[in-house]
Design goal:
CATH superfamily of the largest domain: Hypothetical protein, domain 2
Distance between the termini: 30 Å
Keywords: 4Fe-4S, Iron, Iron-sulfur, Lyase, Metal-binding
Number of helices: 12
Radius of gyration: 18 Å
CATH class of the largest domain: Mainly Alpha
Shape: globular
Number of strands: 0
Oligomer: single chain
Organism: Paraprevotella clara
GO molecular function, one term: 4 iron, 4 sulfur cluster binding
Protein name: Ultraviolet N-glycosylase/AP lyase
Length: 213
């Protein structure tokens, strides 16, 4: 049975080095909302139409209709627009000061983010790691499906978090990298209909699709 370190080392050898999100915390917050239930390519399309250095005051200057029009390629424009406005208002409470928010303990920050309508567990964790540098493992549909196929069955997302978090030092960059690597594996190999030929986990996977002669 593979452990967390085995998984990380195999993924890193296949897909590394990992790519990081923007260094702009506010950009990360907006992108984390835009990517909900859509592809990253759609997010990139939208971000190309926005200022390179995205700022809360720019978003606040837009009408609801203007913002919805800009983000429409990501789908669910009305809902995501409302969430972006809410998180922008939340950010304003701290005077747009990233360091003030970084001072919160990890669990407190996660709870504060989850209290914003439209921000669920996964989005809160993405923002915590990539915007505010908190060392948490991000559980998403890709990681759930991937681990299940490796025969690692967990009853809850919290069990998945513990599986990874107990195995590595508390380093937000490391957890961000692991999340990105699993995402790459999910996009390129471990899809709903997997591509198993030459997969690095082919000999460990419980649902390898045989090659048809």
């Amino acid at each position: 049975m593979l452990n967390a370190l085995d998984i990380y080392n195999s993924l890193n050898s296949a897909y590394g080095p990992a790519v990081w999100w923007s260094d702009n915390a506010y950009t990360v917050m907006v992108e984390a909302i835009l990517v909900q239930n859509t592809s990253w390519s759609s997010v990139e399309k939208v971000m190309q139409t926005l200022p390179q250095e995205l700022k809360p005051l720019y978003i606040s200057s837009l009408s609801d209709v203007e913002l919805e029009s800009l983000i429409r390629p990501c789908g669910f424009a009305k809902r995501k627009s409302a969430t972006i406005i809410r998180i922008t208002n939340w950010f304003r409470q701290f005077e747009y000061d990233v360091e003030k928010i970084k001072s919160f303990e990890t669990d407190e920050l996660r709870n504060r983010l989850r209290s914003i309508k439209g921000i669920g567990n996964e989005t809160a964790d993405v923002i915590s790691v990539y915007a505010f540098h908190k060392p948490v493992f991000i559980v998403d549909a890709y990681s759930q499906r991937f681990l299940m196929k490796l025969g690692l069955n967990f009853d809850t997302d919290e069990e998945i978090k513990r599986f990874f978090e107990k195995s590595f030092r508390k380093d937000y960059r490391l957890f961000g990298w692991i999340h990105w690597l699993i995402l790459q594996h999910g996009i390129k190999r471990c899809k709903k209909t997997p591509i198993c030929h030459d997969c690095i986990f082919k000999n460990k996977c419980t649902s390898v699709v045989p090659i048809m002669e």
